[in-house]
Amino acid sequence: MNAEITSRIPVALTIAGSDSGGGAGMQADLRTFAFHCIHGTSAITCVTAQNTLGVTRVDAMPPEAVIAQMQAVCEDIGVQAAKTGMLLNKEIIAAVAQQVEALQIQNLVVDPVMVSRTGAQLIDDQAVNTLCHTLIPLAAIATPNRYEAQILSGLEINTLDDMRKCAQIIHDKFKAKVVLVKGGGMSGSGRGVDVWFDGQKLATLSTKQVDTKNTHGTGCTLSAAIAANLARGDDLFTAVQQAKEYVTNALSYALNIGKGQGPVGHFYPLLLTTNH
User: Is the pTM of this model over 0.90?
Assistant: First the structure.
């Protein structure tokens, strides 16, 4: 009985970088999967030396190593959903896109990690171009933040209406099935408000605002939660709504660790009785 139940547990794959500080990247993704009772698997694309203050070193994995990890997981265990995070360069991005098609990976969530929430570009223009034209068209949903949406759409985002226009442009320009433009980088009442567009439905998704400086890993966590919900069988819109609620709760119990920006509290029920 127990073995049968265990064999039916959904599986999700994160294709992302390693964060030595444990706040974002693969570490955040796997914690998010675990919270949702999903078995998490991984394909590491790069290794970073980072903490709450920032990144001091990044080492890319060879594309062949990323491919081998994806194949090892999919050909034996299988996955019901996957998400991408930091892919770092055009060679890795192209390899991931090729394997997504070859391995017939469904329910792909693409977090186009190109620009940080503070506006710093993280990958070069060639990598951005490869991501836009090879990976985003394969995604069930793409989740750009404010600055990434500006690059993808060519428009400046200052208002909610700007976010709506960008979502529509990205959808049409890159043949994205669904675009979720995230408002985490917005100010005032627009902070934390996301815009959904699937070609027909244009929706505004909002939850309560959480006042905390400890927001490291929110983008990774949101995309991982969407993937986890998809792996469990939720429809995409429901998966996004529930993921936003999860991130909001995790932000409410963010970890005040280190000297800089701490991570969200992925296992927040365990933190309910602790001081932080």
Answer: yes
